[in-house]
Amino acid sequence: MKIDQKMELLRSIGLSDPEIGAYTGLLRLGTTGATELAQEIQVKRTTIYPIIENLIEKGVVSSYNRGSKKLFTPLAPTKLVSLYERRLESLTQLVPVLEKLQAKEAKAYGVRFIQTKRELGEFYGEILDEYRDKSYYIIGNANAFINLDPDFILDFRKKRSLRNIRTKLLLSSDSKSAVGQEDPSLLREFKYLPEKYQFKSTIDIYNDKILIIGPEIKALAVVIAIPPMVDVFRSVFEVLWETLG
Fold first, then answer.
1. Do the beta carbons of residue 210 and residue 195 sit within 8 Å?
2. Can you tell me the distance from the alpha carbon of 56 to that of 62, in angstroms, rounded to the nearest whole number?
3. Once rounded to an integer, what is the mean pLDDT over residues 85-96?
4. Same domain, yes or no, for 142 and 238?
5. Looking at 126-130, 132-136, 153-157, which range is the least confident one?
6. Which of 28, 74, 93, 219 supports an S-S bond with 113, CB 3.0-4.6 Å?
7. Are 38 and 29 in contact, with CB atoms under 8 Å apart?
8. Total structural domains in the chain?
9. DSSP assignments along 109-154, one per residue
10. Does residue 212 sit in helix, strand or coil?
11. What is the pLDDT of residues 53-74, one digit of tens each?
């Protein structure tokens, strides 16, 4: 096997290039001190100590004192393989435990309340990254939504279009004044509900969650990440969109 292939294998088990240099230097020298190892791999003596400490923490090098001198011994390559096989086996056994924990956390945090405008801004910032070149749905009252913070909302719409995020909106009839003349650069499609359907809330419908903003909830907004509910909202939107023609 070529030297560079060996180096790549050592990197794959988590050793950095300086650590690989120190470990292979110890293999060549056998048990030795820091000064000799530093000379062998051509680094400063002060530099070698943190590298060796990292190797000791990883179990790749051991140390002991001989009189007043500290010596370092490399783990034999055959034992190095066994060391990482044991670690892999331990991680494999841990996976089912982690998956159960993940499932419990998902159930526990299926609903999240947003209390402040700052938190809402952070949420929408995540949406800008998560939905680049994608699309999502909105059912709402444009007047109530923009009145939350007009400057922020207008800025968010521009940022959303710059990330090529498209939206379909089903709006209350009184939203027309807030929408005004449509700007094609904002990548939005509109349909308006009949006048008899009046509401003050806005619902953003994403692939894996919905965001509800409205005056009748105790928080500023609520995020619901419960798959059956998300599926219902998406289906209802799509039926209404097709029905309105």
1. no
2. 6
3. 61
4. yes
5. 153-157
6. 219
7. no
8. 2
9. TSEEEE-SHHHHHHHHHHHHHHTTT-EEEEEE-HHHHHTT-HHHHH
10. strand
11. 989 988 889 998 888 888 999 8
